[in-house]
Write a structure and sequence with these properties.
alpha/beta; Rossmann fold; 14 helices; 8 strands
Length: 314
């Protein structure tokens, strides 16, 4: 029988959606199950410990956060002994499918979530919407959601023109308006970049007494990939499981961005775009003290020239 240290060794990267699903049962063996929920969705369950992570993941984005193409929660199974339920979709569907609804109905009716001491829901973007929306199935759950949409119902969010093709999809029926579905959660965290205006507007709709909104400026469109690169996402989930994730702990963890090259470059783009020469000078010097980087050397030279010109003009 496979153990948790070896059961997930086989890489699943580079596989199409059908081949990826077909390979899952061999990976998890007798420790769980993988069942299709129609052609676009599947439920993959691995049973181990008394903490359950319910993650929502889109197959076409899994390799952005996992080099081997594994669901995010498998790492938590291996390292912390958690149980994991992955709701996977072929593409971005927001999991608006009656077969997914029926699956959660069956979990509720069977008392599935009652068998765990701690239940955590997680997702990012469209999957973040789903994590918030379906968390209502497990009252008292904890939720971590990155850049979630509140709804794509055009009567509520007609200002979001990124997903026009989804406007005919019903978001006003069961498991529909994500902010309302969080009312039964013990706590929820919504992480977003306020520089991404539409994400910030969705985040505003999640204002609730049990929701902590945390701004992660300059991380851009894929906060999940950025947090994985900085080794922060799994630490956040671990803190959430221990009921130790707070605004203060998030701020402490987020200090790691200062050493992240992608974050530094995003910040440089903002300072140069806004002609903030003093800030560009400070940023470039800070980065160059730690490593050589031609873009930052060029930016420092330009900032020095601009500041000298301003001084001479006085």
């Amino acid at each position: 029988m496979q153990d948790s240290a070896t059961m997930f060794d086989r890489p699943l990267d580079g596989l199409s959606w059908p081949k990826w699903l077909a390979a899952i049962p061999d990976q998890i063996g007798s420790k769980g199950y993988a069942v299709p929920l129609g052609p676009q969705h599947a439920a993959i369950f691995v049973e181990k410990g008394s903490t359950l992570l319910v993650s929502f993941e889109a197959h076409h984005r899994i390799e952005d956060v996992s080099d081997n193409g594994h669901p995010l929660g498998w790492q938590m199974v291996k390292t912390l002994g958690w149980s994991h339920l992955c709701l996977a979709s072929e593409t971005d569907t927001w999991f608006r499918d009656g077969r997914v609804f029926a699956y959660f109905d069956r979990l509720i009716d069977s008392g599935f979530f009652d068998g765990f001491d701690t239940v955590i829901f997680y997702g990012a973007g469209p999957c973040g919407y789903a994590a918030a929306a379906f968390s209502v199935a497990a009252p008292g759950a904890r939720v971590l959601t990155l850049q979630p949409q509140a709804t794509l119902d055009p009567r509520v969010t007609e200002w979001d023109d990124r997903y026009i093709a989804m406007r005919r999809t019903a978001f006003d029926d069961r498991y529909g308006y994500a902010p309302d579905m969080l009312d039964a959660a013990q706590s929820a965290f919504v992480l977003y970049d306020p520089e991404v205006e539409l994400d910030a507007m969705h985040a505003a709709l999640f204002t609730r007494s049990n929701v902590t909104k945390f701004r992660m400026r300059h991380l851009g469109m894929r906060i999940d990939a950025s947090l994985m690169r900085m080794n922060l996402l799994l630490r956040m989930l671990a803190q959430l499981s221990a009921d130790k994730l707070t605004r203060a702990s998030l701020a402490r963890l987020y200090r790691a961005r200062r050493d992240d090259g992608a974050y530094q470059f995003n910040l440089l783009k903002h300072t140069t775009r806004d002609d903030r020469h003093k800030l560009t000078q400070w940023l470039a010097k800070s980065v160059l003290e730690r490593r050589d980087s031609p873009p930052f050397r060029k930016a420092l030279a330009r900032a020095n020239n601009e500041l000298a010109a301003q001084q001479n003009a006085k």
